[in-house]
Amino acid sequence: MTGKGSGQPPRQRHVPQRTCIVCRRQVDKRRLTRVVRTADSGVLIDPTGKRNGRGAYLCDQPACWERVIRHAAILNQALNAQVTEAELAAIAADPRRPMPVQAES
Ligand SMILES: [Zn+2]
């Protein structure tokens, strides 16, 4: 499956894009973090991107993470869920969360 004779330019690799639920930007899937609403363990970060359940994507901007952590309604709406404080705290503490670059002064 190298596309021989298919007429497809081999250079432009298609990267799947998803929309960040906060800023609505379309971003490469690789730069997004998936949050999933699972049937058994509630709302959580899905590092594999493969868990079953309704998913929402967050981009790698620290401000977007801040917003969902402060405004559960964004996630509630995106996932059609009732996100608990504990779930939000777990998302806030996730190692994948992008942190703002601290300017040293
Ligand atoms: Zn965003």
Class per helix and strand makeup: alpha+beta
Q: How many separate helices?
A: 3
CATH architecture: 2-Layer Sandwich
What number of structural domains do the residues give?
A: 1
Which residue ranges are poorly predicted, with pLDDT under 50 across at least 5 consecutive positions?
none
Radius of gyration: 17 Å
Distance between the termini: 54 Å
Instruction: Tell the overall outline.
Output: globular
Q: Please report the first level of CATH classification, the CATH class.
A: Alpha Beta
Largest sheet: 3 strands, antiparallel
Q: Overview of this structure, please?
A:
With 105 residues, this protein is α+β, with helices and mostly antiparallel strands. The chain is 24% helix and 21% strand. The protein contains three helices and five strands; from the N terminus they run E-E-E-E-E-H-H-H. A three-stranded antiparallel beta sheet has the order 4-3-5, covered by helices on one side. Strand 3 (33-38) and strand 4 form a beta hairpin. The model has no long low-confidence stretch (mean pLDDT 90). The structure holds zinc ion.
Short précis:
By secondary structure, the chain is of the alpha+beta class. The chain contains three helices and five strands; from the N terminus they run E-E-E-E-E-H-H-H. The protein has helices at 62-70, 72-79, 85-92; strands at 17-19, 26-28, 33-38, 42-46, 54-58.
